[in-house]
Amino acid sequence: MSAGLILRYVIIAIIYIILFRIVRIMYLDLKGIRSDDERKDITYALEVIDVPGSIGIARGSLYPVHKLTSIGRKADNSITLNDPYVSSYHAQIYIENDGLFIKDLNSTNGTIKNGIRIKGVERLQSGDVIEIGRTSFKVVE
Amino acid sequence: MEKYEKSILKAIYTVTMLMFLVLAFIKGGFNYIPLVLGLSSCALIACAHFIIKRFFPKGDKYLLIISAFLAQLGLVMIYRLDSVNTNVAIVKLKSVRQVWWFTIGMAIYILLVVFLPEIKRLEKVKYAYIVAAIALLASTLFLGSEIKGSRNWLNFGYFSIQPSEIAKLFLILYLASAIQDIKNAYDTIKVAIPVFICIMLLVVEKDLGAALIFFGVFMAMLYIGTSNKKYILIGIACFALGGVLSYFLFNHVRIRVDIWLNPWADKSGKGYQILQSLFGIAAGGLFGKGLGEGNPYLIPEAHTDFIFSAISEELGLMGAMAIILLYLLLVYRGLRAAIYAKDNYSRLVAVGISSMIAFQVFVIIGGVTKMIPLTGITLPFVSYGGSSMVLNFTSIGVLQRISESGRKYYE
User: Fold this and answer.
1) Is the Cβ pair B7, A21 closer than 8 Å?
2) Within this chain, do residues A30 and A61 fall inside the same structural domain, yes or no?
3) Does the pLDDT value for residue A35 go beyond 70?
4) Inside any domain, residue A113
5) B49 to chain A: which residues are within 8 Å by CB?
6) Looking at this predicted complex, what is its ipTM?
7) Fewer CB near the last or first residue (10 Å), C or N of chain A?
């Protein structure tokens, strides 16, 4: 009889241990996403290496690449290039699984990586040169 | 992360086997059936988890773990209730049939994760869903058989299905698409009309619980989809009006409300169910009477609608709270899948499914504890019942698919 009594509490205790562990994982999961972002935020940056004076960006300035960086002519992009050769939403640069990728958003004049116009999504590496409109960026780490 | 997952699964297997072991020894003798049930259900979970972990590691594994754990707890309780009738053939035991339904549910879940295309592609045939939902609900009106006072079953000889369960998922698939197109109040009315038809059909069929869930899911999705509080206020006003009207129009609605207000008025007749349920919950106390020690079989329908009272009696308030917390976590995981979903359609489908589970839990647990008028529906994953088991695992499969294709950093 007393064994049954103990088992009764043991069963409930184990159920709560399971619950506690699941909650803990979910907490780590929420925390993990945040710290992931922080770590990846500063991994890559874009250095402006060539730009026409009319755009209003200084040569040599650095743009850190966030988990999603958008480039275009409209003001709500992460990087705004006030250049008629650039489409409203021209391209996106994002980090996925520790790799850096660039995606052309069907821009009119295209996105050029190391002298070749890209189709869709391409992987970027440190040292690659991207041309968007009349502006050139270099990927730095 | 994987290490934790394994330890959680191990703890789930341990507690399940422990509970079945306790059940194996009740009534003095030793019975091997609960051990077989426990081992087979644990093996089932292990298989499903292995497949998901191995081939679809990007998805959310906790959707599976939590729902499977709930199903395990339900199975334990259903066997506990079976153990009262000793002279029933093994294959006819409800728990044995429930294991089959559990297996079928898991199989459908895995098939959906493997073969379901991007959820977005399901959007193309949105009108087919609502037509199917209304047809399913109407079918019981003409072909259905009345079981326990509700005309919501289709009988196929060996088994019978509850079309309103399937209609729920169709409704969500339709609403997720229709709500995105809402631009003004006129559009909202156009979207609401088919939902209204569904709810009316359910009220006429005396399936009030499902009607409540349809309404709740519609409101939740409308609010998430349009973020307009006005629609919700109007919806609640309509609901109040409809509730009062149906109280005076339909006898079965009136009976439900009267029992809720005063179950003692007819304590051996219409109020019997709810009173037995309350006695059961009260008898359980904080830690419960222990598995096999209580009298949960005194509650009518203890294996389906009133399984929560049976669990409260044998596992106590602590066990009952654990069940509610598990649902809370499941709904949280569902909404998390919605947040990370890639497109609006998947997002709204995930919201719809999560809110469906949440409302279902609220309506039935609220019902058996006499917080709201009792309407007979199943407790998802826990209750005995094929339609509900299969449909719930189908929903979890869809959620899993959404969680897997989401969680990317670009659009």
Assistant:
1) yes
2) no
3) no
4) yes
5) none
6) 0.80
7) N
